[in-house]
Design brief:
The protein is an alpha/beta fold. The chain is 44% helix and 17% strand. It folds into two domains: 2-17 and 27-178 and 324-352, Response regulator (Rossmann fold, 3-Layer(aba) Sandwich), CATH 3.40.50; 179-322, Response regulator (Rossmann fold), CATH 3.40.50.2300. The protein is elongated, with a radius of gyration of 21 Å.
């Protein structure tokens, strides 16, 4: 149903994404993706992964054990993701009791312990949403040594790490969306309104604030960079008033936007949030400040949470971008199944984002039900 394209992130784009953020603001350093260590990681001795996978292909999926690590359950988007993942795995023939999904509680040490337990338990395949993407090399090495195929999701390991999978022909892949596109869509939603509609203070610029997600997910840096780039590419002058890290969290996002509104008041014309949870927090703060989205300020997010799509329909949020958790979860499960069947996978499997404005919000909402 969903179109999948294969793509590998380039080092140049990763490097470029480190340059974004408001100059001089606290966001300047926070915009850079996490430094990812891979060079010192010695390739692990693979316990004949191909043979393991082929052995696992014997018998049907109902007897196969799947270990799923989620970076934290307390995340709106990852909750939708894991619910779909479990539903789809069962639909494909896995037994519910053989699917174990654990909460990393946003702590890498906790998650590493969970991965050790899955290895000790001899799961047939692992699906991992890392807490720290910089831990990928360590995790890869121990999983490869145990001969277990692995599908990384949501937090993309860096290019050097992905190169090791390729070079060593390991049964490891990443399934996710290219977050640059989601940022571009956010910027386009604002650009399409035109300068006259957005430039309330008539200084000839689009004055915005940026609320970023956790830098451990490169999505945060890409969305930050490419939302603004879409505006400048469309010929607009931009002015970043504030750039803060809201960690993907609704309450934190709301708090940061409230502070910015107090500090910069009516000069804020656009609020970019790297995800919808933070946009929901932002909306509350915008209302509390007596401002009205669509009338004297604009607000965009990413994910297309049902609640947010409802607000796009009612005009209370300007737009969002559908971060297709169905395509990502089903794609991750399909990749896991291919490993179990001994078929192998491309090392980087990408899904598409969809721009959501009032024009198509109802259609998107219907597809989410
Ligand atoms: C989503 C966020 C989520 C994050 C978790 C992002 O792709 O847009 O909503 O909090 O992933 O890593």
């Amino acid at each position: 149903m969903f179109k999948k394209v294969i793509a590998i992130m380039t080092a140049s784009v990763l490097a470029a994404s480190m340059l974004v953020g408001c100059g001089g603001s606290t966001g300047a350093s926070s915009s850079a993706p996490a430094e990812q260590k891979t060079e010192e990681a010695a390739p692990a001795e693979a316990a004949e992964p191909a043979a393991e996978a082929a052995a696992a292909a014997d018998g049907d999926l109902a007897s196969k054990k799947v270990g799923v690590c989620i970076y934290q359950f307390n995340d709106n988007f990852m909750t939708l993701y894991r619910q779909e993942l479990e539903r789809y795995l069962i639909e494909q023939g896995f037994a519910k009791e053989n699917i174990t999904i654990v909460d990393g509680a946003n702590d890498q040490a906790t998650q590493s312990g969970q991965i050790d337990s899955f290895i000790a338990d001899k799961v047939d395949v692992l699906i991992i949403n890392l807490v720290n993407s910089s831990s990928a090399a360590t995790v890869t090495d121990k999983v490869v040594a145990a001969g277990i195929p692995l599908v990384y999701i949501n937090r993309e390991p860096d290019k050097a790490e992905q190169q090791r999978w390729e070079d060593n022909n390991w049964n490891i892949c990443y399934v996710g969306c290219d977050a640059r596109k989601s940022g571009t869509f956010q910027g386009e939603i604002i650009a399409d309104l035109g300068l006259d509609a957005v430039d309330f203070n008539k200084n000839g610029k689009i004055d915005y604030i940026m609320i970023e997600g956790d830098p451990e997910n490169v999505d945060a840096a890409y969305r930050t960079e490419f939302s603004v780039k879409a505006l400048t590419d469309a010929g607009f002058e931009v002015n970043c008033l504030d750039d803060q890290v809201g960690m993907w969290d609704q309450a934190k996002g709301g708090e940061l936007v409230a502070n910015s509104l107090t500090q910069y008041g009516n000069d804020i014309e656009v609020v970019f949030c790297n995800n919808d949870a933070m946009a929901l927090g932002a909306l509350q703060s915008i209302k509390n400040a007596g401002r009205t989205v669509g009338k004297d300020i604009y607000l965009v997010g990413v994910d297309a949470l049902t609640e947010v799509v409802g607000y796009v329909i009612s005009g209370e949020i300007t737009g969002t971008v559908f971060n297709n958790h169905f395509a990502q979860a089903d794609g991750a499960a399909d990749a896991a199944i291919r490993y179990l069947k001994g078929e192998g996978n491309e090392h980087n499997i990408q899904c598409d984002y969809t721009k959501v404005t009032q024009a198509n919000a109802q259609e998107i909402l219907d597809s989410l039900q």
